[in-house]
Amino acid sequence: MKAATPAGATWANWRQAPFNRWAFQHLRELLPTAAVEADASRRWTLPRAPRDLGGLVLEGLDGQRLTLEDWLAESHADGLAVLHRGALVTEHYRHGLAPAQPHLVFSITKSITALLIGALAGQGLLDPEAPVTRYLPEVTGGYAGVTLRHCLDMTVSLDFAGSATEPASSQGRYWEAVGWSQPRTRPQPLDLRGYLASVPRDPAPHGETFRYITANSDLLGWVCERATGQPLARLLSEHLWQPLGAERDGSITLDRLGAANSGGGFSCTLRDLARVGELLRCRGLAGERQVVPGWWIDDILGGGDPAPWSRSPDFAPMLPPGARYRSQWYLADAAGSIAMAIGGFSQWLWVDRRRDVVVAKLSSRPTPQVGRYHAVEQAAFAAIAQAVAT
Predict the structure, then answer these.
(1) Judging by beta carbons within 10 Å of its beta carbon (0-12, 13-18, 19+), is residue 13 exposed, middle or buried?
(2) Rounded CA gap, 209 and 217, in Å?
(3) In this structure, is residue 214 part of a structural domain?
(4) Which partner for 214 in 83, 203, 263, 318 could form a disulfide, CB atoms 3.0-4.6 Å apart?
(5) Are 327 and 114 spatial neighbours (Cβ–Cβ below 8 Å)?
(6) Is residue 191 assigned to a domain?
(7) Average pLDDT, stretch 74-98?
């Protein structure tokens, strides 16, 4: 059943409850977007191996014991899909979401963009270790001296202070530039690439500390376009979405000049999100097709240095000691046994390589901050994986 449009849902309030529940499934009706086209002739069919998880007991936020359905309600879930060895074992749809209905995945977009970079690198179209200015010589502000690797691993030192609700701050200006917040009165309206070219440097050195800056991921999308001469939506379609065998078109939001938000603007169906996780689990393979080079997946899962992550006071506590952030993916340990892509308002892609399980979860929490829920959600995913793998 299609979710009804809530009275008063607008560009100005679409991320606020209760409007966000509808808006996350209907973003193309509110913001400019570009289609990321699928190809029905290349669909990666997911076999089915249904499992009854009705007896599963999960722990809630306050320690209470919950059924799966109760946990989905408490966690504001719109959808949940679980794969075991590539087979769909269970899926749940709530709040108007349906198998064919797209949903915004927020910062999981970053992880998808990084898979595209791997595909392009495998074709020799860009070098992920190169300086940003090799591709974007006009970026002479805070990104001078930065490499693509710094951006991929979030070790860039920029002035990205403030929040979306502080329009004069660097981060407030970013959300206006990307087209997600209403423009303020300025001499000239902001746009994403103008912002990226002028964002100021933080005096701390690059490469030493994990700093979560969404603008880094938008810069990576711009690099992909400059390196290939193609718009990002087309690149995603031709090099990732179609060879992945997606069931449905995705989409990505655009700023006022048509620049894609590769840091957080991607929407897709629940099953297609699960396919992305399965691609990672299968070392870049979608069925028989090698979509992303195996060496790029190996580097995501086993590469990188845990030290920058450990130096982040805000993020390091959310994962066990030895965790890392590599190429826009969160890794729970040095072996990459658990890999995660996480988006605001509790969007999750959780890949358990030991149990051969992928969990995709789409949500519409009332607020974007998900930090206090991380441990609860990860424990629930681990319990689900244990149940379906037994």
Answers:
(1) middle
(2) 17
(3) no
(4) 263
(5) yes
(6) no
(7) 97
Sign, Cα dihedral of 210, 213, 218, 222: negative
Whole-model pTM: value is: 0.96
Domain count, the chain: 1
Ranges of H-type helices in the chain: 19-23, 68-74, 108-122, 148-152, 170-177, 192-198, 214-228, 232-236, 242-244, 270-281, 294-302, 306-310, 374-389
Please answer whether residues 117 and 217 qualify as being in contact, where contact means their C-beta atoms are separated by less than 8 angstroms. no
From 211, 168, 177, select the one nearest 195 (Cα to Cα). Answer: 177
Query: Cα-Cα-Cα-Cα dihedral of 254, 260, 265, 269, to 10°?
Result: 100
Whole-number Å distance between alpha carbons of 167 and 164: 7
Domain encompassing residue 311: 19-125+231-389
By annotation, the residues acting in catalysis are: 107
Residues 6+ apart with CB under 8 A from 185: none
Return the residue matching tokens 């999308």: 221
The CATH number of whichever domain residue 357 belongs to comes to: 3.40.710.10
Cβ contacts of residue 198 below 8 Å, gap of 6+?
A: 141
CA–CA gap between residue 169 and residue 184 (Å, rounded): 12
Please write the tens of the pLDDT for every residue from 221-262: 999 999 999 999 999 999 999 999 999 999 999 999 999 999
